Amino acid sequence: MLIEQTYRGLYCGAGDFYIDPHLAVERAIVTHGHSDHARGGMKSYLTSRSGEPIVRRRVGVRASIETLDFGEKIDINGVTVSLHPAGHILGSAQVRVEHKGEVWVASGDYKTEPDQTCETFEPVRCNTFITESTFAQPKYKWRPQSEIFARINDWWQLNAMWGRATVLFGYSLGKAQRLLAGADPSIGPILVYHTVDSFCAAYRLSNIQFPDYHIIDETTIAHYRGKGALIIAPSEIRKTGILDLIGEYETGFASGWMLNKSSMRSMIYDAGFALSDHCDWNGLLGAIKQTEATRIFSMHGFTETLTTYLKSQGYDAHEMR
Asked: CA-to-CA distance for 249 and 264, rounded, in angstroms?
């Protein structure tokens, strides 16, 4: 096992490093800046160059962080390591590990459909592929993102015609920037929550362009009351009470989970959009095939469903719990 699951996280014993560790370790390779992958307390970090500002914001400005360009190789205790685009959010990386002719790739989180806010997923040939399986069930099949954004903008425009605000909820990092980049600014003013804006700064360092927007506070909310504004924010904004100042509004949520019409998430919003930064079922199978790996480990999601199917297709497939 070149990479194995331990209580601290994925561990490469030959190189003595961890990938997205849960607990403090000497050396951590971080696939991307989401809080369930980038944690503070590590002695040193390695991550992608474009993802470094996001990871640093997560783990602390004084953290020791080394960066790699995508495709650049580094030797760690005789193990060759390189990072490759995962297409999940800006700077998200797959970790390629090579030792004594054996090549493993740990995917982190990934999606194969390109979007304008991050690097496009690149399949990496390997012997063993560790894949996420967040949406690893056949029922999860995404519509083209162009279609989803057209629906979002049509919904916003209809609300604006009636003088209603449109509150679109999404995670502050990754999803919110994707929603912002896909919004049609000709419809009306755009407002974003401060946590969304703070991550947008890292995106601008990579020349990702956004339409003009205003940061949400009591003054801006009051100013755009009744003017058909689009508000992009995480769900936590509901706890602040600031939405009470915007007047009449409708709410929507953008997530792959919105494909589950009976889910609690879909029942508490006026609109739902199945827009995910993870692969759907077909995306996962396509990515796995492109690696040409014969051994597959699945983790983070519907691992049993994916493993059972892959075994039926002749793969040496296993779950990592």
From this structure: 20
Domain spanning 4-139+278-319, CATH architecture: 4-Layer Sandwich (3.60)
pLDDT digits (tens, 9 = 90+) for 246-295: 999 999 999 999 998 766 565 689 999 999 999 999 999 999 999 999 99
CATH number of this structure's domain 145-273, picked from the four choices 3.40.50.10890, 3.90.1150.10, 3.40.190.10, 3.40.50.300: 3.40.50.10890
Question: Per residue in 28-49, pLDDT tens?
Answer: 999 999 999 999 999 999 999 9
> Which residues neighbour 198 within 8 Å (Cβ) at sequence distance 6 or greater?
57, 172
216 in Cβ contact with 132 (< 8 Å):
no
Show the tokens assigned to 26: 């000497």
Q: How many helices (H) and strands (E) does the chain have?
A: 8, 19
